[in-house]
Amino acid sequence: MTDISSLRVEFLNELIEGGTVSDPAWLAAFRDIPRETFVPYYFTQRPNQPGWLLVERPSREWLEGVSSSRALITQIDGTDDNVAWARTGRVQGVATSSSSAPSLMALMLEAADIHDDHRVLEVGTGTGYNAALLCHRLGAGNVTSIDIDTDLVHRARERLAALGYFPHLAAADGTAGYQDRAPFDRIIATVGIPGVPGAWIDQTALGGKVLVPLDLAGSAGLMALLTVNSSGTAQGPFLPDYGAFMPLRAKGHQTAMDVLATVGDQDADIRETDLPVGQVANAAAFEFFAALVTGGFDTLGFTPNDGGPPETWLTQPDGTWACHTTHPNGTQIVRQGGPGRLWDNIETAHRTWQQLGQPARSRFGITATPQAQWIWLDTPSNVLITSPAALSSPAHGLDQFHRHGGQESNFLDIGL
Question: How far are the Cα atoms of 18, 198, 231 from residue 226, in angstroms, in the given order?
């Protein structure tokens, strides 16, 4: 048995034993579609070493990477030029495309409850690997995949054709969906997006489903599975699993490092806090709720060069920031600045979450129309947040809540 064959067997066993694949049709797709066709190279980082290192065919490291269930970074700064530059050394930049973890892809494909005759729109073509899995199950004629990056679409088309698959691919703005091929029975996004675009609701058939990972400034990993009903509303729960994807490309987005470079202590409010930063940055517990309430935040931790205690920085794209430090005597200090007061808002959200009984992410859901979106707990009538800071098309307070049939006794105004 060759190395690649042996590694593929291990890969399939990992998917099965991890419980992410139970449908025989999807298992057959993962067995038959070679991931290595779609990922001839990827970028990686080494601990305590700056920049990105290129890993490419036919190295052993590449082979092990493409045969694993790891997410693999396939593009830096939205350009292919970094591939050539990385062959001469490390490159700097921000990851802009990836081959998602196959275990996460399998989880989403199964959660979407796809049937053999369904027409599916994939938003975020990327390498083309997920489109190939869809083609294997549905036939290429039922698959539409779009991506904002023309070069990514071109390469995906070539790779899919090499396997005999010719789905409809297009370079297009994912937030607009793809009207020319609508209606769709399923829309699956493999890119993080702040809210549910109205175009997706309009282009989904009655009773169809939309699976969307919410991008909350790099935090939470929330995935919502919504069903479109006859009133033009889509609603459904968040999946219990964490799922993070590359965000939609947007000009002017600031990373934690960008914000950090502009911060001066003279701009900060400084005080003690009783909230450990480990609770805030815990994806398995409170972080998702904090992100829903505040709009999300990027997290960066490090130990200062002067040997001071470790710092954890939380930043938002508009330049709002907070820095949490736990001193050796146990005192927790927070500094915060920028346009907002992020840590104050996180503390308020934490008190609310505790009052609610610390509910898990799977107890929350989202309702969306082309004009508005809101968050509920346990049932759609139990509206919790009517103006989610994280969503691109938020509802507008209590008046909007009443117009959509809620009961005032179920309303909780977070008030941030």
Answer: 25, 13, 14
Per-residue model confidence (pLDDT) at position 394: 30
> Do 342 and 357 touch, CB atoms closer than 8 A?
no
| Whether 78 contacts 95, CB under 8 Å | no
Angle between helices 150-162 and 129-138 (to 10 degrees): 50
Tokens of 59: 């190295």
Cα–Cα–Cα angle for 228, 210, 386, rounded to 5 degrees: 70
Does pTM top 0.70 for this prediction? yes
Return the higher-pLDDT residue of 272 and 246. 272
Question: Chain centroid to CA 164: how far?
Answer: 30
Residue 217 has pLDDT above 90, yes or no: no
The one catalytic residue in 100, 103, 145, 219 is: 100
pLDDT in tens, 347-385: 999 999 999 999 999 999 999 998 889 999 999 999 988
Q: pLDDT, tens digit, for every residue of 14-34?
A: 888 878 888 999 999 999 999
Is residue 100 flagged as an active site residue?
A: yes
pLDDT given at position 150: 95
**CB of 213 closer than 8 Å to CB of 195:** no
Confidence of residue 395 (pLDDT cuts 50, 70, 90): very low
Residue closest to 276 by CA, chosen among 220, 351, 353, 332: 332
